[in-house]
Amino acid sequence: MRSKILIGxxxxxxxxxxxxxxxxxxxxxxxxxxxxxFRIIYIHLPTIxxxxxxxxxxxxxxxLYLTKGDMKYDALAAGVTEVSLVFAAIVLVTGSIWAxxxxxxxxxxxxxxxxxxICWLTYAGYLMLRRAIDEPAQRARLSAVVSIFxxxxxxIVYKAIDWFRTLHPQPVLSVRGGGGMAKGMEGPIYWxxxxxxxxxxxxxxxxxxxxxxSREIDSLRREAHQY
Amino acid sequence: xxxxxxxxxxxxAKDLRAEWRTKExxxxxxxxxxxxxxxxxFAIDPESMxxxxxxxxxxxxxxxxxxxxxxxxxxxxxxxxxDALVASPVPSAALFLGKTAANFSMLLAVESVCLPAFxxxxxxxxxxxxWSMVAVxxxxxxxxxxxxxxxxxLTVNLRLRELMLxxxxxxxxxxxxxxxxxxTHDLLNGQPLAGDNLIWLRLLIGFDIxxxxxxxxxxxxxxxx
Amino acid sequence: MxxxxxxxxxKYFGDFPALRDVGFKIxxxxxxxxxxxxxxxxxxxxxxxSGLAKPSKGSVKIQGAEVRDEPTxxxxxxxxxxxSLYDELSAKENLILFGKLYGLDDAAKRAEYWLEKTGLExxxxxxxxxxxxxxxxxxxxxxxxxxxxxxxxxxEPFTSLDDKAIAVLQRLILEAKERGSTVIMSTHQLRxxxxxxxxxxxxxxxxVAYAGERRQEMIGDPGWLYRTYEGESx
Lengths: 227, 225, 234
Description:
The structure holds three protein chains of three kinds. Chain A has six helices and no strands.
């Protein structure tokens, strides 16, 4: 059953991405100001949303672990955070490329990129913490707490840096394409978003299976050593 | 409630008394911050220092503070004192607040040496808006302390404690540091706390309240296995 | 009166059950020797009984109340592997500190009393870091008893104690029993423990292999319990 879902998700994702790629490169026109590079938004935006959705799932999962004690929630939180971290990295890379082409700099200290960088560092810390703890229950408990702190902090940072940059005017990457986009250009964003969410879900499922197996091995090892 | 406060105070007094006997963390922290200040004088042209003063000051505070905060729960692992405290009737929240209060005092002690030294070495008059400055230092230091003490509790039993504590805690401190730096920068450059600034003051106060509440709620989960 | 009751306690480390369906009742006034090989789950169980860890399933009640409740913790005394004393504080300061934490109004007086009882009154103002090992152990014992707990939990209390300290501790344990307190001590030092014990609990591979009165066969041949009961719980 699980592998059927997995294959289903990946197929949908690949199909959507394929169709979208055609759309993005063949159908959608060049953007008026930025030219061809604007198409990077079709990866950049959906990736941000998927990543953030992931961190929200991690938060809920961490809280559920602390209240219910079921290790599955811990596996979900860890898996989702790992996958979201990859998506966050993609945001940073695509943002950087975009900045380079448009503004001629590899990195712009603009609100969203900076807060995404801090977000990435926070959750990278979460993963490092997990590697530092051998005992599964302790690892689950402590990393759940860090996940909660991390999420609250990321929200605050996002707002704060927004204020910071409005008070210190900087060249800003226009990432919020919502209202100002011509019809026909918006569509691919949402299709890609769907594709990425499917892909992310598939990756999380694989990760969770790995986690289950590794916990089984760990418990067998404990049993063997104990007695 | 009265019992809770008196227990927290007992813990705070214990930490401060123990620290005062050795003064290890205080001395190391003050010495370290003076070294950083000297390094800054090489890194940045002292004439353009007013521009950077606000930010640099809080960098010094947070690095020096890390020395104090790391020891906070770490000192309890010696002789297994932490187990005795957790097993005692003291609620984890009281234990946490007591330690945070002690760390807060120690950090303020370090800062009260640092700030005048900073003013002296770089010719910066920090007393123009004295009470505003005090308010910002108090609020900012509480933010750093509360988060630092919480993560000290979280990492206390880990084998990589000295690595994990800074890795985890500095990102979480960023909003408080940002706000404190902005406010200090304005105060040192002759702008009182008013108008645009107040957004940072609100952020700092909000940070303090949110993270104190979050820490007090989650500290028991972290300490009991 | 039931002083301590463990009910269907399970403790998981990940997927591995360190304690499986552990249950027993202990009457007030008993001295219980908690026995078991290394890795059997004694320390895990003791940590749960002391309120330092929570069971994954099941419950532990002390005098009918949850262990982690504050009023309950006031009635428990714990002596673990470490001495749980602050090196930079004096003997008296340490005792007063713990006296206050346990809610004693006359912490200073009680501290003085226990310093005398453990023979440390002359070094009351000395810092713990200057104490010899024996002195630290005696002070640790004083700290455990200062609030006259009704339930005492010891993790290998006789290990690395010198004769004098062992005698002091044995005397204190018997006095506690006279008062109606309950003592649970996990131990490898079978001889010293069995001499005092009224009951024994044997933990084997996370399960309770034996929970009952001290048997005649155990005195003089402490290994008897292991041999007789270890085979039964696979």
